[in-house]
Task: structure prediction
Amino acid sequence: MRSLPAFILPALICGFYAGNAFASEPVPVSVEPPAEAQEPMDLETASFITADADADLKLEYEEFRTFIGLLAVGDHKSAKWVSALRLYSTAFSVMDKNKDGFVDPDELREGEAEHGK
Ligand SMILES: [Ca+2]
Ligand SMILES: [Ca+2]
Result:
């Protein structure tokens, strides 16, 4: 399983500068980790598919929270920070580059490309 670039890092930075990083207690994550896949699938892909409840290949805000929760359960460091510090909305707005209210796979990849250097 490849390790993921810290594509959520800018969200963390924004959150800290916005002063809301320590606003509240962590939200309990009730989601389960991705099931063992029959074929190799990285954590991000598996989490995306699991989180995309209506299977439109886009994550709306609630689905995005699930997605982050799944990544956090899968020991994704940035996602664990976002989850622990409740930076979901900040992370969502950072990742939703075209501001259409959804985070799609292309935007996730762009985030990795920009911040994974
Ligand atoms: Ca969806
Ligand atoms: Ca978008």
Q: What stands out?
A: Residues 96, 98, 100, 102-104, 107 surround calcium ion (ligand 2) (CB under 6 Å). DSSP finds six helices and no strands in the chain. Residues 12 and 82 are 7 Å apart (CA to CA).
